[in-house]
Amino acid sequence: MEKNKYKHLVAKHTPKENGLYHGLLAFVTGGLMGVLGQFLIDLYSNWLHIPTTEASPYMIITLIFVGCLLTCFGFFDKWVNFAKAGLIVPITGFAHATMSAALEYRKEGLVTGIGANMLKLSGSVIIFGVVSAYVFGLVRLILFGG
Amino acid sequence: MIYVNAFLFCGFVCVLGQLILDYTKLTPGHVTSMFVCIGAFLDIFGIYDKIILWAGGGAMVPITSFGHSLIHGALAKASDFGFMGLAMGMFDLTSTGIIAAIIISFFLSLIFEPKD
After folding, report:
1. A28 lies in which domain range?
2. What's the rounded Cα separation, in Å, for the pair B10 and B17?
């Protein structure tokens, strides 16, 4: 009885997630990030005359730089709170995780602070990426021969 | 037209991430790790290459393209060197992103103080 009452109280006071609104917001911001990526690729291939396939690293570096810089100025945390997955899932989320960890631990020194903790949040992306790419690459190598 | 495709695909991936964040108890770290694995998985059958042809930059921006680039570099080297090539070429295509993130955040963290 008490337990049910407690559960009821908790459910009453938990803030309701407005799924549709958040989803729409993530769709629009994420889509705009995609458009920005394609625009940067077009810009670099037309402006710097590099082949389209080689323009994507330039685009990724630009987005990472902008994400890091905005995190330093403190804007990006507010934007991530607002748009959530729309900015976490694109590559800016990776930059934001790396940069904010580095900023947070800079007080503890160069080696024990920045060096040891920089990849604290974004390291899992690299680890799981490498593990899954190795396993799936092995599967494809055995099944299709590369 | 490719801009519309880029908008649709990148938005779709972000909505998937937002739904996972809203309706499960997983953190953003779980979501990004999961998406990297999905990107690598889709490349077993070469699906992600077709998506990149269709959506262009819209498919390069989400974190799924990170997994795709990892497996793609590994397989490109593996065709020359066999199993050892998987380890040799793993970071061929993704190193720009990782190195840029590390170098930029290192030097910026020397300059800037954390806010609040």
Report:
1. 2-104
2. 11
